[in-house]
Design a protein that fits this description.
135 residues, alpha/beta, 2,3-Dihydroxybiphenyl 1,2-Dioxygenase, domain 1, 3 helices, 8 strands, 19% helix
Amino acid sequence: MSTDAVRFASVTPNLIVRDIAASTRFYCDVLGFGVKQTVPDAAPFVFVWLERGAVTVFLNDPGAVAKDLPAYAAPVFGGTSTLFVTVEGVDALHAAVAPHTPVVMPLHTQWYGMREFAIHDPDGHLITFAERVAQ
C-alpha cells in the first residue's frame, strides 16, 4: 500500500470527559483556551471544541460517544493517552497554572533540551507543556 499521496494535516486530542462543563472551565480558566464551537449551541453540551493558538482540543460526553462507538460507553478516564503541548513561555505558563491545579511533574529542563512540567486535567489526562531551550 502506498501512502505517498497522503498528507496528514493535523491531529486533535479528542477527550472523553465525565463532566463537560467542569472540563471546559478547567481548559478555559486554568489553561487559557477559548470555546470555538459547541454541540448543541446551548448547555448542556455533548461536545466542546477548544482552541488556544494553533492547539485544539475536543471534549466529548461519554454517552454521545457511545452512540457511534459502543465500546466507549463506560470509558476508563485518563488512561494511557497523554498530551504533549509545545509552547513558548513555559515558565510563565507554569507560574500561571501551578496555583490552580496540582503539578504532577515539576518544571525542569530535560536532558534532551526541553523545559517541561506536567499536570492532570479533571479526568486524569496527563498534559505536559514543553519549550525547547538552549543546551
